[in-house]
Specification:
Strand content: under 5%
Largest sheet: 2 strands, antiparallel
Helix content: 55-70%
Oligomer: single chain
Structural class: mainly alpha
Length: about 450
């Protein structure tokens, strides 16, 4: 991790300038090709279009059956893009055979959920393109993972592929599992996801019709209703609370983490947040402060107060993060000083987050080289995300070195999209990057550069 030193006037001695990012060189070797498939860089598809897949077929198949996506929850779906590369390479049959071989045995308890999800998504793509074998394998891959109460593979993909017909099939199987094991927790998202004319209301009505003659679907709907009723009653009604009641609740309910305070705060007016803020300033107990700080996660504190500083530097990471979330949009000299101290001590993530609201000219020169100092993938992702956010708030051509680093080395395609957007908006994106981005895994990245080309 980079170690920085304070110079005169409390500023840092500038780090070594970052290494320039060079365009990819074709043909890609197996390592570069595999890396691009894992991160979703457009050079993977460029490679196949320009040079074919000779010697790289196994690498491509491996990428299809082993998930390389960094964060499936926030990144674009990987399967459609991977299938386009498989299709370009003419390896559809090889992929079906590889997936069939993996499905000969039931998933092991320790098998990676992401890998299983990606395999079913690849089967969905193959089936949508007309493969009867892939469709059969997709339906066969609908399984409940051992040792779990709710984890099921392929349900989403079957519903996405076949709409209402797929939903009926999945609901019947889930109802059967629930009948056999009352602990099984049915998936209530599937009805919302079903693409049918009339939306979820029509999908639910169709299931109710099926339930009249199918006891397993009737069981599915019964458990579905129980889950929704329990969810609606599991948390206090935030809208009914006054600010004074929020303060008292935080004091009197130490076992409640009070994450629902965020929902209350979204609807609160400025005077209500002020009431909670004043109560927070008088709190001395760390867990109590953590609960009240939940109110300021999204809207921030009304203003800076030095009594917040102990929570920012508190050794409890949950409290420290809650305090950082609450003040990161606040500008104050003390917060800038803390940000620079954190960076000097190696807390690059927290430092850059505080610098975004406390930005001064020259901060990009300070921060961009820090991106090269990170080996840990998760830390690199967080740092890249925070750096791009700083660039979005303070767009400047001075940030180009850091943005190129994010583009090349962030494991997350969503961060790459944001970096490309800032560069496109500033007209500082290199031509090679724009060409490559038109083949990126993220359809928003592709659309962004294609719109700029018109």
């Amino acid at each position: 991790m980079a170690q920085l030193a304070f110079g005169r006037a409390g500023l840092f001695n500038p780090p070594v300038p970052p290494m320039p990012i060079a365009p990819p060189v074709f043909p890609l070797d197996s390592t570069a090709f595999g890396s691009a498939l894992r991160t979703g860089h457009g050079r993977a598809l460029q490679q196949v279009q320009l040079n074919g897949v000779q010697g790289l077929g196994d690498t491509l198949i491996d990428a299809c059956v082993q998930c390389g996506t960094y964060d499936q929850q926030c990144e674009a779906a990987r399967a459609p893009w991977l299938f386009s590369i498989v299709e370009c390479a003419g390896l559809q049959t090889s992929l079906v055979q590889a997936l069939a071989g993996l499905l000969k045995e039931a998933p092991a308890a320790d098998e990676a959920h992401n890998d299983l999800d990606q395999r079913s998504a690849m089967l969905r793509e193959l089936a949508a393109a007309g493969s009867a074998d892939a469709r059969r394998l997709l339906y066969a891959s609908l399984v409940r993972l051992p040792g779990t109460s709710a984890d099921v593979i392929a349900a989403d993909d079957i519903v996405e592929l076949d709409g209402l017909e797929g939903l009926v099939h999945v609901a019947r199987q889930m109802g059967r599992w629930s009948q056999e094991d009352p602990r099984f927790w049915v998936d209530d998202r599937l009805v919302e996801q079903c693409k049918v004319s009339g939306g979820s209301t029509a999908a639910l009505a169709a299931l109710e019709c099926e339930a009249q003659t199918d006891p397993y679907i009737a069981r599915y709907l019964q458990v579905l209703a129980q889950i929704r009723a329990q969810r609606n009653s599991s948390a206090p009604d935030a809208a009914s609370f006054t600010a004074e009641q929020i303060v008292l609740y935080a004091r009197d309910h130490p076992k409640d983490s009070c994450h629902w305070f965020r929902g209350w705060a979204r609807r609160a007016d400025a005077s209500e947040l002020e009431t909670v803020f004043l109560a927070l300033l008088d709190v001395r107990e760390p867990e109590h402060a953590t609960r009240l700080l939940r109110c300021f996660v999204q809207r921030g504190v009304p203003r800076f107060d030095s009594r917040l500083m102990p929570w920012l530097v508190h050794p409890d990471p949950m409290l420290g993060m809650a305090a950082l979330n609450a003040v990161e949009s606040t500008r104050h000299p003390d917060l800038r000083t803390l940000a620079l101290r954190w960076i000097a001590n190696g807390d690059l993530e927290g430092g850059i987050r505080l610098l975004t609201a406390n930005f001064e000219p020259g901060d990009f020169v300070l921060c961009a080289p820090l991106l090269e100092s990170i080996d840990d993938e998760a830390e690199r992702h967080r740092l890249a995300s925070n750096f791009v956010e700083m660039c979005e708030v303070h767009p400047s051509a001075d940030a180009v070195d850091g943005l190129l680093n994010v583009y090349e080395f962030s494991p997350c395609s969503t961060c790459r999209l944001k970096a490309v957007k800032v560069m496109v908006d500033l007209d500082i994106a290199p031509d090679w990057l724009l060409r490559e981005s038109s083949f990126d895994v993220d359809p928003e990245t592709r659309a962004l550069v294609e719109a700029g080309a018109r």
